[in-house]
Amino acid sequence: MIDFQSILTSINEAVIHEKDKGKIADYIPELAKIDINNFGIHLIDSQQENYAAGNSDEQFSIQSISKVLSLSMVLGLIGEKVWKRVDVEPSGDPFNHLSLLELENGIPRNPLINPGAIVIADILVSQLENPKEEFLAFVQNIANDYTIDYDKEVAKSEKRTGFMNFAAANLLKSYDNLNNDVDVVLDFYFHQCSLSMSCAQLTHIFYMFMNHGKCRRNKAYLTLSQVKRINAIMLTCGFYDEAGEFAFEVGLPGKSGVGGGIVALLPNKFCVATWSPGLNPKGNSKLGMLALEKLTTQTELSIF
Ligand SMILES: NC(=O)CC[C@H](N)C(=O)O
């Protein structure tokens, strides 16, 4: 039996003493207010035992981690048709780059970079009567936690400074790959990214990706084939131009966000989330990556 609790406790001890904690994302002004010294880690295993260390119950902005959840909702609503509008190849580019979008005629490389997630947001806006309310309810239901909410200040803050996302949405529109108004789609997208969660709450949602699409109450949200595909996309595209490095160092499917969160999982075994707001130059949490590398090294568990 692996003693997850002592491993998490020792990882916490080791990483909080690191001098270089990375740099907080300040292009969304509201995120720049967070204390860089935060670190939390939470793990849930297949038996639903929970282990934690550090500030694992403090909420933060999940940002791009939400892209996995919007993709999951879209797959449930329109199924495989989604792949006509967005591809499944790693981009090898930063999350907000637009050059490939132009080269590839408005079909984003994958749903986990910004242009791809904006297409997914457009589909939700088309499919749902009250997109923000229904998406939030979808997330709350998976978690069985009705306290989860958007952080309206973060959404507003990003709306004021999200020039690259406005550029992406306009480019998509010019290629006929955005059906709704740019402002409406981005309002939804900025809210989706502003979801606030703790490491514990994140693992309680992402539990379903390690449990054949079924949440902690055993309700199925995704088919086996959909979970397989989403995990494959997380592995190949979950860390933008650092997906290779994450597979190399950590060896798990996962997803990061510029709020400093990372969630990762080993099918049938565990789901883990870390939070440390300092980012490395590729936009992934510096201490989060280090902590997860230590976890898979010390437990000798990875998909490889
Ligand atoms: N990598 C991220 O977490 C980016 C999400 C952020 N909302 C953006 O669109 O820029």
UniProtKB/TrEMBL annotation:
Which InterPro entries does the record cross-reference, listed alphabetically? Beta-lactam/transpept-like (IPR012338), Glutaminase (IPR015868)
- Organism placement in taxonomy: Bacteria, Pseudomonadati, Bacteroidota, Flavobacteriia, Flavobacteriales
Q: What is this protein called?
A: Glutaminase
PANTHER family (alphabetical): GLUTAMINASE
Keyword Hydrolase included in the entry's annotation: yes
Q: Which organism is it from?
A: Maribacter ulvicola
Q: Which UniProt keywords apply?
A: Acetylation, Hydrolase
What EC number(s) does its UniProt record assign? 3.5.1.2
State how it assembles. Answer: Homotetramer.
Reactions listed under catalytic activity: L-glutamine + H2O = L-glutamate + NH4(+)
Tell me the Gene3D superfamilies matching this sequence.
Answer: DD-peptidase/beta-lactamase superfamily
- Gene Ontology biological process: glutamate biosynthetic process; L-glutamine catabolic process
Which N-terminal stretch is annotated as signal sequence?
Answer: none
The family line of this record is: Belongs to the glutaminase family.
**What is the enzyme's class at the highest EC level?**
hydrolase
Listed binding positions for substrate are 64, 114, 158, 165, 189, 240, 258
GO-annotated molecular function: glutaminase activity
